[in-house]
Structure prediction request, 231 residues.
Amino acid sequence: DTGVSQDPRHKITKRGQNVTFRCDPISEHNRLYWYRQTLGQGPEFLTYFQNEAQLEKSRLLSDRFSAERPKGSFSTLEIQRTEQGDSAMYLCASSSDRGGSGNTIYFGEGSWLTVV
Amino acid sequence: AQSVTQPDIHITVSEGASLELRCNYSYGATPYLFWYVQSPGQGLQLLLKYFSGDTLVQGIKGFEAEFKRSQSSFNLRKPSVHWSDAAEYFCAVGPPNFGNEKLTFGTGTRLTIIP
Prediction:
């Protein structure tokens, strides 16, 4: 169990540029989540995948945001035309549904985005 | 809509002293309840969770939490803190019977430990 890994850990980009974050979940986990955390706040739910299907999206996920999980394994979160308000830590997490509801979510260490 | 309130933004305690972090929630039914810890620049680690049954739940690192339905609270406690407990603590709720797929977090309580 290597844990949830995220790449890159830190990204500084100019306003208007596109950025992409990658998340590799724990290998046997079929559920994958993206959260966003701004300074001084708790994480906020963005979206959730079960295998390759994106089952829920928060209204926080504007049209500039897109998340994919093409083969039900790793996931990418892309932000187009970044704005300064996108500066945050983007957390990925994964879990397994094989034990029924309430399985533990394991979080990665996050990807910090700074838009200048 | 569900919400989580952590009224204490920052708490300072002496090493070896007891600790209680407060959490209140607003939800239509009894949700699933969680406490997470986050060290600076790191992701979140689950300390403990409550789904049903015994209202006093034990977690990792010597933490426990008590669910009080009448007060809509889920306070976190530790009898004797260690310097390594310094971190940010988040209370979270999840939809009952849906598990923890979509958690709502509080704004966190930052814990400082003094020698």
Observations:
- DSSP finds no helices and twelve strands in chain B.
- The two ends of chain B are 41 Å apart (CA to CA).
- The mean pLDDT of chain B is 92.
